[in-house]
Amino acid sequence: xxxxxxxxxxxxxxxxxxxxxxxxxxxxxxxxxxxxxxxxxxxxxxxxxxxxxxxxxxxxxxxxxxxxxxxxxxxxxxxxxxxxxxxxxxxxxxxxxxxxxxxxxxxxxxxxxxxxxxxxxxxxxxxxxxxxxxxxxxxxxxxxxxxxxxxxxxxxxxxxxxxxxxxxxxxxxxxxxxxxxxxxxxxxxxxxxxxxxxxxxxxxxxxxxxxxxxxxxxxxxxxxxxxxxxxx
Amino acid sequence: xxxxxxxxxxxxxxxxxxxxxxxxxxxxxxxxxxxxxxxxxxxxxxxxxxxxxxxxxxxxxxxxxxxxxxxxxxxxxxxxxxxxxxxxxxxxxxxxxxxxxxxxxxxxxxxxxxxxxxxxxxxxxxxxxxxxxxxxxxxxxxxxxxxxxxxxxxxxxxxxxxxxxxxxxxxxxxxxxxxxxxxxxxxxxxxxxxxxxxxxxxxxxxxxxxxxxxxxxxxxxxxxxxxxxxxxxxxxxxxxxxxxxxxxxxxxxxxxxxxxxxxxxxxxxxxxxxxxxxxxxxxxxxxxxxxxxxxxxxxxxxxxxxxxxxxxxxxxxxxxxxxxxxxxxxxxxxxxxxxxxxxxxxxxxxxxxxxxxxxxxx
Lengths: 232, 362
Known about the structure:
A: mainly alpha, 11 helices, about 80% helix, globular, B: alpha+beta, Rossmann fold, 2 domains, about 35% strand
């Protein structure tokens, strides 16, 4: 059983991952739809930008976030002045870093499932009197549900393991930004902290397996709901 | 009334089509690649022509000159695809009701319960689409289009993905809704049989152009269009009512305005309306009522016109009661019998020549 401090670390990790996934889901669905269903000049560039966090060293992403959203950053200063939203050295910053790092995985999964939907189903829905927005809500979204679930869980798993961008952007502040990977790293660096590191690693394993099982179960449910036969 | 005049470029294919048709069922007939589906897409608003106009029942759906282009959901045309395309995540009832509440309240004239009964869908309501047979799927698709309260149904090869028994099942339902709901239908097909059985007016398409349009027999019977219509047997369509069944011989008597026709057993109740296509070459002529003949149908007729023809075969236009009937005979027979316009003759039709394929349920 985890101790109080350990529990704090686990809860913070889960909170960061959940918030990161929840906030990035709507834009991910938007970009997935745009990439799957529309064609415009500059689409390749947009595709590349979406995929950037997947191929860049996480430290570079963290550094970019620091420049943009730091206290003196272009966006950070503006957001703090106008909305009172501060990312720098807060758990919200960790959630932002996690969301950005998981974003390409999420978009990829959702995009694939939207592309697999027969476009003519959307056409039929339009001729039946459905507006573009209603057709998206009633046909595209439910049929893309398996992909949305998969994408969200991939991003969640990625968030739980996020290290480089987080430590660069919001540093390692116990109780605020110290998620599981950061805590494990800190214990490994501390003489005599190996036992703690092993314990935390075991919790990480348990969490990951739980996420995988949940993913499997949710995907199956979403698929049944979308009327897709499992035998096929 | 459907008034179409459009130009559209689709890749290297140039579509340039103009036709006008007013009929319960308008057939768009042509080989694959002739532009049938492109016309339907332009009508439905899922593709935009480069130039032209589309007017249905005095409502302008598209007019490039006036900058009108109604969105597909504002056109209210029920589009029925070849493979049904039911929404896989919704059960039959939710599929049926998808368009119902999106139709303007004033336009809601088609009653869901009536459609469900008409198309025999009551027992299917709770099922998901992948548990339905091909014919059932297509019936649900038709019902779904109807409940969106369309001004017109667009059917793009609705039977193409069905086997033969399912085809005649769905055909019969289409005929029923034509008579029951009075919804005009644009019926797209490359099958001569479907077009002649259902359509009143036909538009013949080839290479992205409308070669001809008009009454089915007028267009399909034209000899100069033979390369595009294929082996079509010209003839006449009689609207009849089932008068009696002769169970001992398995025959059905059909009554029409001006006479009766005996045909092999028709599966329809007495009083039901039935359409019969009589091929011109199955009609013979006699000057006097013949005796000692196996032919069951001997109909008194007035000779209306003889098509002037240089070749060996001549079409003779008759009137039986109030209905027109065409007989195809040799030029020699016309000469030897001394046939003239206005003359009283007898039209002979073998009951056997009126097979299952020429009798449709009206």
